[in-house]
Each structure stands twice: as structure tokens, then as C-alpha cells.
């Protein structure tokens, strides 16, 4: 059963005299409980597509549906509420508040949604424990490594138990070991909690954790691959090479 789908989704920047198409007539379906990776060359529209899927940007034309909810039909309050309750976001840059502890950073979505502070902090501790940071909850971002900060960002995305996690290059600022640990935690969110994950990445090694990969070029879906076997990263590299040569 699908949880996200788009209908002729298009995003154009610039003006009528100088249009800059970022996403062009994309029809995409994401199944519930699927781990989908989006790949493509720099400037291919990967991040723009992700932001459109999560209601962080509005399409020029076309629609995005979360189950039976048309995101374009929601007002700003309704869209904000949907983002807080149904989506979890993880970005390349951690976007943590420097003066708050890890626990407080993770609790923010719950507090914004009206949860009592004590209950929100308890849930934040549970989310931090799931990403292996139970002993770092009182530390501020400056006291954490890059990998630990990204884990805090992931805990913040998970704390509301969202239906869909959207991750934009979440390993882009991490070393190989920390990147693999992050990808494994995202994989567990899908496998153990049946959450849906859409990941933008340039790294074939990280994309190899996905069930399916959609390849973008010039804002259009040009291919997709349902990954099988043990040489997943190599399959992805070969596809990216073909795209670069075409």
C-alpha cells in the first residue's frame, strides 16, 4: 500500500522569462514501510524533490499526497501540523540548537505539539537510547562529535514516531564509520518500526541499504533499481556511470 505519491510534480524557479526547472513532471509512489533512495548528479533536483514530498516547499504544478491528504490543499497551519506529526526530517547539517542539551533538542517537536515538558523529556531520553546516546543526553552540541550530533538529529526525527522519515544527505558530513552507523540506524527504523524512509544521497555505499533507488537527471526520473544480491553498491556505481555517459 502506498503512503506517498506524486502526480505530475513540477517545481520551477526563476520567472516566466528565465525559468529554471528543478523537478519536472515527476510521478512517484512510495510504499508504506519502504526504504527508498534518491540519487543523481549534482543539481538533478534530488533535494528539491525531497522538500516537496515533505511539504517544506510548494510545487509549481502537480500534487503530493500523503495517504489521502493532498498537501497542496492544506493551509499553513494544517501543513505545519502534518509535518510535525507525520514526517521526521534529518538533514546534512544537524540544525541543533547550540544552547540546548541533546535531550532538549530531541524534545522540541513534542513540546511544540503541546506535550508536557516532563513527558517530552522522557520520550526524548527513550529516543536517544535508541540511537545509542543514553549517556550523552545532558551534553550540548558543542560537546558532541559530528556523528553524535547527527544521531541527536535522528532521535529528534524519530521521537514523534512519524510515518515517514525524510533524510537529505544525512551522512554527507560524517566519516565512513559514522556514515555506516547512521545508515544502519535508518535501516532499523524501517525494519523494526515499519516506518517509511526516503533518503537523498550521493554515496552508493549508503544507498545500498535501500530497497529501491530512483535516479534523477535534470529533474526527471530516468531509471529505478530494486536492489538484490550482495553487490548492491557496485550495481549503483554502474548505473551512475551509465547516467553520466548518456
Give a written overview of the molecule.
It is a single chain. This protein is of the alpha/beta class. The protein has one domain (2-245): 3-Layer(aba) Sandwich (Rossmann fold). The protein is built from eight helices and eleven strands. The chain has helices at 46-53, 76-86, 102-112, 117-130, 146-158, 176-193, 204-207, 232-245; strands spanning 2-14, 19-26, 29-31, 35-39, 61-66, 69-70, 87-91, 164-168, 196-200, 212-217, 220-226. A six-stranded mixed beta sheet has the order 7-8-9-4-10-11, sandwiched between helices. Strands 1, 2, 3, 5 and 6 form a five-stranded antiparallel beta sheet that branches. The chain is globular.
Per CATH, the class reads: Alpha Beta
Radius of gyration, CA atoms, in whole angstroms? 18 Å
CATH architecture: 3-Layer(aba) Sandwich
Number of domains: 1
Strand percentage: 25-35%
Helical segment count: 8
Strand order of the largest sheet: 7-8-9-4-10-11
Residue share in helices? 25-40%
The low-confidence parts are: none
CATH topology: Rossmann fold
Order of helices and strands: EEEEHEEHEHHHEHEHEEH
Tell me about the largest β-sheet: 6 strands, mixed
Helix vs. strand class: alpha/beta
Count of strand segments: 11
Q: Note the gap between the termini.
A: 34 Å
| Overall average residue pLDDT | 91
User: What do we call the CATH homologous superfamily?
Assistant: P-loop containing nucleotide triphosphate hydrolases
Outline, from the CA principal axes?
Answer: globular
Amino acid at each position: 500500500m502506498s503512503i506517498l505519491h506524486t502526480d505530475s510534480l513540477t517545481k520551477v524557479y526563476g520567472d516566466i522569462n528565465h525559468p529554471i526547472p528543478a523537478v519536472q513532471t515527476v510521478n512517484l509512489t512510495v510504499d508504506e514501510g519502504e526504504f527508498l533512495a534518491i540519487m543523481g548528479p549534482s543539481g538533478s533536483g534530488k533535494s528539491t524533490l525531497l522538500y516537496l514530498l515533505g511539504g517544506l516547499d510548494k510545487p509549481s504544478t502537480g500534487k503530493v499526497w500523503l495517504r489521502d491528504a493532498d498537501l497542496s490543499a492544506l493551509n499553513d497551519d494544517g501543513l505545519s501540523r502534518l509535518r510535525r506529526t507525520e514526517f521526521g526530517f534529518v538533514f546534512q547539517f544537524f540544525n541543533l540548537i547550540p544552547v540546548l542539551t541533546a535531550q532538549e533538542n530531541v524534545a522540541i517537536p513534542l513540546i511544540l505539539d503541546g506535550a508536557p515538558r516532563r513527558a517530552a523529556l522522557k520520550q526524548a531520553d527513550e529516543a536517544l537510547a535508541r540511537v545509542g546516546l543514553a549517556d550523552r543526553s545532558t551534553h550540548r552540541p558543542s560537546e558532541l562529535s559530528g556523528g553524535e550530533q547527527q544521531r541527536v538529529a535522528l532521535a529528534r526525527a524519530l521521537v514523534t514516531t512519524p510515518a515517514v522519515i525524510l533524510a537529505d544527505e544525512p551522512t554527507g558530513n560524517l566519516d565512513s564509520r559514522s556514515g555506516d552507523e547512521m545508515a544502519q540506524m535508518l535501516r532499523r527504523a524501517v525494519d523494526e518500526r515499519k516506518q517509511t524512509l526516503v533518503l537523498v544521497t550521493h554515496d552508493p555505499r549508503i544507498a545500498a541499504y535501500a530497497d529501491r533507488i530512483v535516479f534523477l537527471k535534470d529533474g526527471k526520473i530516468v531509471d529505478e533499481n530494486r536492489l538484490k544480491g550482495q553487490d548492491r553498491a557496485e550495481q549503483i556505481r554502474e548505473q551512475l556511470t551509465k547516467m553520466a555517459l548518456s
